Fold:
Amino acid sequence: MKEFWSSVASLLGVLAFCQSILHAVFPPELRFAVHKLFKRLFSSSSYYCYFDITEIDGVNTNELYNAVQLYLSSSASSDAGSRLSLTRALNSSFTTFGLSNNDSLVDTFHGVAVVWEHVVSQRQSQSFSWRPLPEEKRGFTLRLRKKDKHLILNSYLDFIIDRATEIRRKNQERFLYTNSRGGSLDSRGHPWESVPFKHPSTFDTLAMDPAMKTQIMEDLRDFSNGQEFYQKTGRAWKRGYLLYGPPGTGKSSMIAAMANFLGYDVYDLELTEVHTNSELRKLLMKTSSKSIIVIEDIDCSINLGNRKKTSSSAGGGGGGAPPNEMRGAAGEDGANSITLSGLLNFTDGLWSCCGSERIFVFTTNHIEKLDPALLRSGRMDMHVFMSYCTFPALKILLQNYLGFGDSDMELKSPVMEEIESIIDKAQMTPADISEVLIKNRRHKDKAMNELLEALRTETRKKGKNSTEVEDEEQEKRALENPKQNCDDGEEFEEKSWKKESSAEDDEDQEKLN
Structure:
């Protein structure tokens, strides 16, 4: 055994001596050329080609590395054969899967199999640097067949980047913004203040007509995927929605559901805090893409009413000065002086296209008060009427608050049948019905009985109010047309007198007979 180890030691000594001779005889350039030659011979006989994607490119972060990491996090979760690493960010509800160090993963794109390997190695000790690099050197190696390189490489990388952008948008924390009071700036010089957006409303829990809900979801999906369409047609990548209807019908919940469906930030614009059109444009410039810009109760914010009605009322007032129908309260110091023209340019002018993938949402309880110029297509593209609670919407509320299933809905109990017959006449908002269900959510039967009683009460009130309204309208017509009413009265008296006289003649004739 001793002789064996002595022979091995002698052999290693000979090899070390030969290596030192080679280093002394052959210069580094020649050794590098020989190494390159052998590598080329090996690669020519190999069926695969390799692409390295490092974490840091020089001193900058490689965005392609981050995109691949995000993409593989979604692919790795479905690959049970891989050894995965799990991470979860602070205040995040998503668990991210990833490849462990020096592990590999097989992916398929358009029927072509590729192999990703996560390569992690220790970085050599670095000299002084203004930007210290991480101790570990990380990267991904992509292996694919040479014959498939020209077929899928570019399209595959584009697909990875798009997929990573979608994952990043879905996982990132979204914010609810509001404009600062009086146009002041925050510590970062931004005119918007923000809080995390945590509203739980979704289209699944939204109580409205299912057909309208599906139409809105399809329209939103087409908008978010319509970048090429908007570029091809020469239109700014934006869309406007007008939500109108009685209070309590779910307009704010609709906005939250839209934001959660698309993964967009929400900018709640308070017009009363904006003094000039210039400030309005600056606020628009500071909004990000992939966002929803909301103006709630726009008819109550500033005076942007219907100019036709205003002009007609001014014309009947005796020829005074024309009203300033486009200003909020112009002429007072520090008052709001936003004009209708400024708001129109905000939604559909040149400044509205300074960003992309934006949605404008206006809400109002009285659509008739708004100027038609604000409602036309191109500004408010889709008008959504938020109606009183209907029976299909009630089914969603019963599922949300009482846990009703499909079998409970299909069961035609007497209470459910009566509710279905009177709910349209009662004209109760989803907010009012939700309050009845919340109070009795632990007792289904009690909740249904109280809901039925509330619907009956509202139905009686609506019937009584409609009768009173008809009486008031008749009185108004009588006051507006007194002459016609007098003529009608005289004609009525004359007809009555003729009837009485004819009746008396008949009685006399009978006596004679």
About this structure: The longest strand covers residues 112-122. The CA atoms of residues 203 and 214 lie 9 Å apart.
